[in-house]
Amino acid sequence: MSHQFDVIVIGAGPGGYIAAIRAAQLGFKVACIDEWKNAKGGAAPGGTCTNVGCIPSKALLQSSEHYEHAAHHFADHGISMDNLSIDVAKMVARKDTVVKQNNDGILYLFKKNKVSFFHGRGSFAKAVDGQYEVAVTGDKPDTLTAKHVVIATGSNARQLAGVPFDEKLILSNDGALALGEAPKKLGVIGSGVIGLEMGSVWRRLGADVTVLEAMPTFLGGVDEQVAKEAQKLFTKQGLKLQLGVKIGEIKTTKKGKATGVSVAYTDAAGAEQILECDKLIVSIGRVPNTIGLNAEGVGLQLDERGAIVVNADCQTNLPHVWAVGDVVRGPMLAHKAEEEGVAVAERIAGQHGHVDFDIIPWVIYTSPEIAWVGKTEQALKAEGRSYKAGSFPFIANGRARALGDTNGFVKFLADANTDEILGVHIIGPYASELISEAVVAMAFKASAEDIARICHAHPSLSEATKEAALAIDKRTLNF
User: Fold this and answer.
1) Which CATH number covers residue 448?
2) Residue 343 lies in a domain
3) Which residues, by range, are in coiled-coil regions (predicted)?
4) How far is the C-alpha of 11 from the C-alpha of 306, rounded, in Å?
């Protein structure tokens, strides 16, 4: 017997669970299906973000940063550390606890909002009488029916051709988060967010980390001035960055009882090189996940990348079938998925849900953090748009000095004629938190002068934001 709902959401990652909750708030009878399992086989909603992405990586980044501060910076504060050690197993266990707290929190939110949760894989069975029948496979098979279906099945790590993940030697983000100890030599293919964050975690804990990047420039999507500063600082920290490489044969090796990975590559100068490492993280992007969805069974349209084709409102080619998050076009960001999930639930209710893709913030949680929103300077140059730039370094900020973290700067880009803020780029302490002021400002079409005229607390890192806005008009007060 099929259970009847108004809305079925397939996937309980950031896009899915938020869509389910918002739809329930709007009065719909909602079901959410998700197949993630924890180590004991129980439900683990939250998708890649909660289980093997955003949340666990930040937990490990925090732990490893504490260790690095204790090893290299506490002495500056008069704190002596003798016989410092790190228990990696306990660090990973703490990460697992943080993940479970988030899993349990989502299950609590489902219960609070009267969302029916089904643990298993959701797939289309058939379309019938203007509704869709969705099968749940798993420990407790079931069948659900609803007029509206929201697909939020996320993405999977992209593999190198012919080099599958074994999560022991060749790692995706999943395996990189579960290492039992810091490898002596760690290779990373790809200098994107995952590669840099995971490389940073294990470098801090003693790994010799080499990052191989095919692109000739570092962090190509980031503002060039920020990317250059980041490359300088990461290199100083000990990350070995090889740009413009061409990856060749990758094979596992064994010397006695020791296993490892050998990566053949051609460097930027055209020389043949070999990287020998104990573990290899492959972080070359992600691909939309439609495995087992039975898209072909109901005629759901996919594009050449395997992503579900949607219009500007996240509607698919099928009536009353929607898709959000990593499985559709646009940036693969958890907060983008959440905003789409809310918007779709509101559109189902006849409201006018809205997502402004121009002001979605981006963050890389390295140290220093990197965050930005809006246009980069190189993009504005390519457009031929007249603009003004202003920046302010954290070394001139009193709170940053007190923190002992003065690397980086805040940079504003504003229209040369109207002074409207076109982009804000930050590299430095707590950039992930500071960027929100810029997002709010841009949402309301604020000018750089608006930010420059707002009183910011002293001493605070946010004063660097105000000073960068003042720098647009060449009138910084503390630099």
Assistant:
1) 3.30.390.30
2) yes
3) none
4) 17
- Helices 431-443 and 463-471 cross at an angle (nearest 10°) of 50
- Residue 154, marked binder: yes
Place of tokens 């990461």: 234
Q: Within this chain, do residues 322 and 369 fall inside the same structural domain, yes or no?
A: no
Question: Is 188 a domain residue?
Answer: yes
Backbone angles phi, psi at 32, to 5 degrees: -130, 130
- In this structure, what token pair is assigned to residue 451? 């930010």
Locate tokens 């690397």: which residue? 407
Q: Are 146 and 165 in contact (CB under 8 A)?
A: no
**Which member of 72, 73, 354, 458 is catalytic?**
458
Task: Assess whether 69 carries a catalytic annotation.
Answer: no
Q: Which domain, by its residues, includes 190?
A: 170-284
328 is in an annotated binding site: no
Calpha distance 53→56 (Å, rounded): 6
Q: What is the DSSP letter of 208?
A: E
Ligand-binding site membership of 476 (annotated): no
Is the domain of 40 the same as that of 142?
yes
Give the domain-ending residue among 266, 284, 302: 284
CATH number of the domain at 13, please: 3.50.50.60
Is 186 annotated in a binding site? The answer is: no
* 422 within a domain of the structure (yes/no): yes
To the question of whether residue 122 is assigned a binding role by annotation, the answer is yes
Distances in Å between the Cα of 467 and the Cα atoms of 178, 359, 438 are 42, 21, 13
Q: Are residues 69 and 37 in the same domain?
A: yes
Total of domains in the chain:
3
Q: What is the pLDDT along the chain (479 residues), one digit of tens a residue?
A: 689 999 999 999 999 999 999 999 999 999 999 999 999 999 999 999 999 999 999 999 999 999 999 999 999 999 998 899 999 999 999 999 999 999 999 999 999 999 999 999 999 999 999 999 999 999 999 999 999 999 999 999 999 999 999 999 999 999 999 999 999 999 999 999 999 999 999 999 999 999 999 999 999 999 999 999 999 999 999 999 999 999 999 999 998 889 999 999 999 999 999 999 999 999 999 999 999 999 999 999 999 999 999 999 999 999 999 999 999 999 999 999 999 999 999 999 999 999 999 999 999 999 999 999 999 999 999 999 999 999 999 999 999 999 999 999 999 999 999 999 999 999 999 999 999 999 999 999 999 999 999 999 999 999 999 999 999 999 999 99
What pTM was computed for the model?
Answer: 0.96
> Was 194 annotated as part of a binding site?
yes
333 annotated among ligand-binding-site residues:
yes
Domain ends where: 331, 355, 379? 355
d(CA 469, CA 476) in angstroms, rounded, equals 8
- Regarding whether 252 and 314 lie in a shared domain, the answer is no
In a domain, 165, yes or no: no
